[in-house]
Amino acid sequence: MTRIFSKSAALAFLAVAAAGAIVACGDDSTGPSGTPAAVAASVTPPATAQVATAVQGPAVVVTDAGGNPIPGVEVTFDVAGGGAVQYPIATTDAQGVASAGLWQVGPKVGDNTVTANVDGASPVTFTLTSSAGPAAKISSQSGDGQSGAPGSTLPNPLVARVVDGGGNPKAGENVTFAVVVGGGSLSSTAATTNASGDATSGAWTLGTGQCAQRASATDGSLKTFFTASSRSSIAVGGNAAGTLSASDCVINGAFTDEYDLTTPAGAVTVSMTSTAPGATLNMVTADGTALIAQDVNAAATFRLITAASSKAVAATAGAGSTGAYTVSVANASSDVTTCGKVYIEIGASTNQALSTTDCTTNYNPASGDWSKSDVAGDAFLVYIPAGTTVRISETAQPLDALLSLYSPSGSLITYRDNGGVGASGTESITYTATTSGFHRIVAGSYCLLFEDPYQAGCDYGAYTLSVVKP
Amino acid sequence: MRLSRFVMLGICAAVFSGCGKDDVTAPSLPPLSQVRFINALSDTGAVDIHAVDQVNLSPIANNLPFRQGTQYFPTAAGVRHFRIFLTSKDINVTSVVMADENITLPEGKRLTLLLSGSARAGTTSLWMIDDSADPPPAGQVGVRLVNAGSGIVNGYVVNTATTPLPGTETFSSVGTLTFSPYFDRATGPAAVRVTDAGSTTVNASAAGPSAPTTLPGEKPAAGVTQEGTNFSVYYFSAGAAGSANASVTTPGLVWFVDRNPCDEPAVAACAP
């Protein structure tokens, strides 16, 4: 066999092979290119921005002791001030740069910071000062809820506050004040908001009518209202007389006199006589929700189941008409036994009884056409503004309650008879009004649908009706 | 064969065999995080989100609609490369890259990548939110509010979706793409209601899910009735007019589970 390698060549080959093999056993990675020694800004965010907006966030470059950029270094971006960055953690690229992406500025006016942290190097902090965003809300700050005699000047001016969507005061906004109800005047109507977002009106001199007089503060499309009462009071058991005339407050085009009234829980009758054509009697709660709204036609009396609350009675003429009037309020029995209109206030609860003296109706909630049996029940009218949710409950023991609710137009909305024949307890309706208006509640008894209410053994008895905002 | 050749062969064999490791071969996993996607893109249809650097140990979203999220996926930590596409059967549509991002995923975290911005404006982007909070105290659940919608909002944690707003908000002034701290409360029915900051008009309400009933021996699942659960409640805008989400006409809230009761450290009921 021919000798191919000499001994020296073989040894050289062995040495090279061994070296190659040893090299081949080594790690494939190139190893760290350096230790982070410094972090510096690569991209600096803007120094100012509006709250709750997105701006370009910071980027940093990480270098070693020799100033060489280091790729592959993890950078943590810590945010203060209520904002956030797109990438709270980022890794440096081939140029040693890591970016936080976008920076969502916090919702409050003031300093926002992002701090870039790298192990082994001093952190770098970026600061942005945020300013208020666009005006988003105007509200009454002070001056609302004052009272004074008709024609008097109120002691305090009106102060309206303008804020952005985050509640930050908005300075430099032009606010316009105006009287909208009552016919009074303001000594100055234009103001600019200060650093607290406040704009202040001139003095408010009330009009000569007695009502809840109103003024507005407007900033562009934003508006708020102030109310000042020039009403006198009427007590339960008392009365008031006056004349509806052109010097009165004008509400919805009609001359109006209003009186404050505080009622206990129970029932009152409200009576009105008037010579004014088209006179109406209105009663509203402290927040303006209607309780009674009825034509008077010279003289009329209405009964209201009340909560203990403050409210107002208004005597109103027809549009443009005038005339004398008298309004009186008296305590009344709560028991509903006739077919007359009985109003009930949201928040009121009343103990009642079904008996043969009740108004009889001819309805069947299920089909609407039941005609074989008259049904005894008590009917109440409650004003429910659109969007308002109420819970109506009829608790009857041992009566088998049957509770129905009708719309302002008279159609059945729903009824409750969950217990079946002979079952007693509480029936409840929770309803959110879709239309503002007087809704009719009929509190009755199940057995009355199927049995002659005038026969002995029918399910008459006591019950409690309540109407509340849940 | 000459002796020197045997010697040379033996040396080579010994050298190469020295490269082998002595220990038993076992599968090894890279550092992991847990990653999910949530879609808050209100002006376009469902999306696909893919990691394009590797297939294994990557999160994925296919046909992910507005206001929905994926499960958490075990995901290789480190710098990861993601692309976002519109879901479509039309190759001309679905091949358009809506966003292309390299994101560093830290190890050992539970993370949400929130898809936000505007497809129409070309500002679609992923925002990283850290979900890996400590468990709530015994007998409690944690709830936080994430504003994936627009504006600055307040949040209220109440018993039901119709409970009147209390006087003080639970989460105050939460701006777009930011989130509140976790709020701990006793287990039981819970709902979140959201208003614009400074307003008492409710924009959206949603009750939290109750934990499903478990069979004897079964481990407890997440729910407002199960201690050890953390939730993020995401506030979303209405869908943009004229978009695929136009039928979504009001803002909304969606509850997402950040932490299950049996995640470490697990609650006592998870013990075997």
Helices, strands, pairings?
The complex is a heterodimer of chains A (470) and B (272).
Chain A: H1 7-24, E1 38-43, E2 48-50, E3 54-56, E4 59-63, E5 74-80, E6 84-85, E7 89-91, E8 97-99, E9 102-104, E10 110-117, E11 124-131, E12 135-142, E13 146-147, E14 159-164, E15 174-181, E16 185-186, E17 190-192, E18 198-200, E19 204-205, E20 212-219, E21 222-229, E22 232-233, E23 239-244, E24 249-251, E25 254-263, E26 266-274, E27 280-285, E28 290-295, E29 299-306, E30 309-316, E31 323-331, E32 342-344, E33 349-354, E34 360-361, E35 375-384, E36 389-396, E37 401-406, E38 412-416, E39 425-432, E40 437-445, H2 447-450, E41 461-468
Parallel strand pairs in A: 2-11, 13-21, 22-25, 29-32
Antiparallel strand pairs in A: 1-4, 3-9, 4-8, 5-7, 5-10, 6-9, 10-11, 12-14, 14-18, 15-17, 15-20, 16-19, 20-21, 23-31, 24-25, 25-30, 26-29, 26-31, 27-28, 27-30, 33-41, 34-35, 35-40, 36-39, 36-41, 37-38, 37-40
Chain B: H1 3-17, E1 32-39, E2 47-51, E3 60-64, E4 73-76, E5 78-86, H2 91-94, E6 97-105, E7 110-116, E8 125-130, E9 140-147, E10 153-158, E11 171-174, E12 183-186, E13 191-196, E14 202-207, E15 230-236, E16 252-259
Parallel strand pairs in B: 1-7, 9-15
Antiparallel strand pairs in B: 1-4, 2-3, 2-5, 5-6, 7-8, 9-12, 10-11, 10-13, 13-14, 15-16
